[in-house]
Specification:
This protein is α/β, with parallel strands linked by helices and about 230 residues long. The relative contact order is 0.09. Helix 5 runs antiparallel to helix 6 and helix 8 crosses helix 9. The chain starts with 6 loop residues before the first strand and ends with a strand. InterPro entries: 2C-system_Tx_regulators, CheY-like_superfamily, Sig_transdc_resp-reg_cit/mal, Sig_transdc_resp-reg_receiver, Tscrpt_reg_IclR_N, WH-like_DNA-bd_sf, WH_DNA-bd_sf. It comes from Nonomuraea insulae. This is Transcriptional regulatory protein.
Length: about 230
């Protein structure tokens, strides 16, 4: 059964083979659920009204109207609010810019590998979670972190001092704990120093994949605890 807090997704593409592949890929990502598929622009607008998806994966080549026109109409007040990620074979700078101007959060070029789509969806989920509280941001850095976590790909945000293998090991170890863990606890599990574990945890927190919170004890400095978002 789907979780009630799943991010609902509408897939818009005129190619049934593509929509079937995207449907399978999206439903494999934890926390996402496809609620509709549309093969034309008009069908996309109708499905957006009917299902009110949180996220729309939008192709720009549709048989009845340009995908950019669909993106524009999705911004109208009578349409339920939805975020748009474009998935298109078009690579012209003018097209990418036009998609951004019409509200697209991100632009993926076809053919899109399953891993690339998964990472994009996970970054989107981490970003969306930060808006759910409905509060206000106290620092510019908090807003900067949101934009970085959504728009920078995995390779771009990983400094040279961060190993992909160790990064994944930290994520895997943290994902296996019931609640949260400290850098010291994770260091013992994966066999690195406490300083190394802390550096990786802070890096993952910057990417929006890990959440860190201080825990205050009876005395002394607070201990930072981390959990997977």
């Amino acid at each position: 059964m789907p979780e009630p807090r799943d991010i609902t997704v509408l897939i818009v593409d005129d190619d049934p083979v593509v929509t079937a592949a995207l449907h399978a890929q999206v439903n494999r990502v934890l926390g996402f659920r496809v609620v509709g598929i549309a093969h034309t622009g008009q069908a996309a607008l109708a499905a957006a009204t009917r299902f009110a998806p949180r996220l729309i994966l939008l192709d720009l080549h549709l048989p009845d109207m340009p995908g950019l026109e669909v993106a524009h109409r999705l911004r109208r007040p009578e349409q339920p609010p939805a975020d748009v990620i474009v998935i298109s074979g078009r690579k012209e700078s003018a097209t990418v810019r036009a998609a951004m101007q019409r509200g697209a959060l991100y632009y993926l070029v076809k053919p899109t590998r399953a891993g690339t789509l998964e990472q994009t969806l996970l970054r989107y989920a981490a970003t969306a979670e930060q808006f759910e509280s409905g509060g206000r941001f106290s620092e510019q850095q908090e807003i900067d972190r949101i934009f970085r976590s959504l728009h920078l790909d995995q390779a771009a945000v990983r400094p040279k001092s961060i190993s992909a293998a160790t990064e994944q090991a930290v994520l895997d170890a943290l994902g296996e704990v019931e609640e949260d863990a400290s850098a010291h606890e994770l260091a013992a599990v994966i066999g690195v120093s406490r300083a190394t574990a802390r550096r990786y945890l802070e890096h993952l927190a910057e990417r929006g994949l890990v959440e860190g919170r201080p825990r205050y004890g009876p005395t002394g400095r607070p201990q930072h605890r981390y959990r997977v978002r």
